[in-house]
Amino acid sequence: MDVDKGLSASPKHLSSKYFYDKKGDALFSQIMHLPEYYVTRAELEIFSLQTQIIIDALQLNPNTYFELIELGAGDGLKTKELLRLLDKQKYKFEYIPLDISLNVLENLEKSINTDFPNIAINRQHGDYFHVLKTLKDSHHPKVVLFLGSNIGNMPDEIAKDFIAQLGANLNVNDKLFLGVDLIKSAEIVLPAYSDSKGVTKAFNLNLLTRINRELGGNFEIANFDHQAEYHEAEGVAKSFIVSKCNQEVRIENLDKSFYFSTGERIATEISRKYNTRIVHQIIEHSGFQITGMLSDRGKYFSNYILTKEA
To answer: Quick check: helix, strand or coil at residue 20?
Structure first.
């Protein structure tokens, strides 16, 4: 089990994929609207102000049916800007949002059906590649959206493998619209992962609450804190849960206890920042080529158009 493996390791770690239960979904929605969290605003600006440029860059044909697949769709805030114009211009497509959270998908489907009754939506719950394999047999053109710099939650080697697997499930001329957070100063980045209202702290510590609820843990949440760090030269933001004291935690479903010393950290998330050189390294040997790029006015964020060429 991931929790047992992670808390038994040295140093300790927990996977960020477990952030997203119902409470975690709600907290992340709050994070996206915090003044410190520039990531969503910067990408939303691209989708809001450059919508037609996105459509043109993706080389979409109004008369050719295509599948618009979104990995980790969330609440669809940014994607709805694109859907609105595609709907207005009468493009022929099906919207296929994928997410690990069924709660998020159910809410998204309701909002799409309300806001865009003419758009066909086919929600998919579960693992990205399991779903993509089922779609591969379809020979319709595909546009895959992977937004919010979600790729940045993976170490570079895993990200390379992820992009390669993604390419293996697409056909020649299919597109990947990849959103990445750009390398910038700590003064801008660090507050986005340690906000003044403590929402990010609550989001991080909710991992422990979830272990208590679902695995019979007895974490005393008040005995742990949230910590974020970022070094511009490395270009990676990291989040940790930190033990405030020497303590022992029992997890009944694992029939096991775990020991924490004062200041000991549990790594919970990384958030890689990018530039074009790093993106080129990530997509090397994947069959993708960069065929376009859009950025917000502040140059905080970029969306790369990657085309499957082999």
So the answer is: coil
Q: What is the arithmetic mean of pLDDT over 266-271?
A: 96
Q: Is the dihedral of CA 95, 100, 106, 110 positive or negative?
A: negative
Torsion 51-56-62-65 (CA) sign: negative
CA–CA gap between residue 259 and residue 253 (Å, rounded): 17
- Count Cβ atoms below 10 Å from residue 62 Cβ, excluding itself: 11
| Total Cβ atoms within 10 A of residue 30 | 15
pLDDT tens for each residue of 9-42: 999 999 988 898 889 989 998 998 999 999 999 9
Give the DSSP H or E segment for 85. Answer: helix 79-88
Q: What's the burial of 142, exposed, middle or buried (CB within 10 Å: 0-12/13-18/19+)?
A: buried
Query: Cα–Cα distance between 251 and 48 in angstroms, integer?
Result: 46
Given the DSSP bridges, would you call strands 93-99 and 124-125 parallel, antiparallel or unpaired? Answer: parallel
Q: Cβ contacts of residue 222 below 8 Å, gap of 6+?
A: none
158 CB-near residues (< 8 Å, 6+ apart): none
| Residue extents of the structural domains in the chain | 2-18+186-272, 37-185+274-308
Dihedral over alpha carbons 155, 156, 157, 160 (to 10 degrees): 120
What is the separation, in whole angstroms, between the first and last Cα of the chain?
37
Q: Name the E strands within 57-131.
A: 66-71, 93-99, 120-121, 124-125
Fold classified for 37-185+274-308: Rossmann fold (3.40.50)
Residue 20 structure tokens:
């997203």
Q: Which of 238, 226, 228 is nearest to 273 (CA)?
A: 238
- pTM score of the predicted model: 0.90
How many CA atoms lie less than 13 Å away from 68 in the CB half-sphere? 23
Say how far residue 81 (Cα) sits from the centre of its chain.
18
